Amino acid sequence: MRGGLRMLNALRHPQYRRYWLGNLAAVSGQQMMWVAQGWLIYRLTDSPLYLGYAGLATAAPAIILNLIGGVFADRLDQRKVIFTTQIIIAATVACLATLTALDLVRVWHILVAAFISGSTQAFNNPARQSIFPQLVDRKDLMNAVSLNSIVWQGTRIVAPATGGVIVAALGEAVTFYVVAMGFLGLGFAVIGLKVERHVRARNRAVLSELAEGLGFIRDNFLFTFLIAMSFFNSFFGMSVQQLMPVFARDILEVGPAGMGFLFSMSGVGSLLGIFAIGLLGDFERKGLLIVGGASVYGLCLVLFALSTMYPLSAAAMFCMGAFSSIYTITLQTTLQLRVPDELRGRVMGVYGMTHNIGPLGAVQAGVVASAFSAPVAVAIGGCAILFFALSTALTRREVRRLQAAPAAG
Question: What would the CATH number be for the domain defined by 2-192+206-400?
Answer without folding.
Answer: 1.20.1250.20
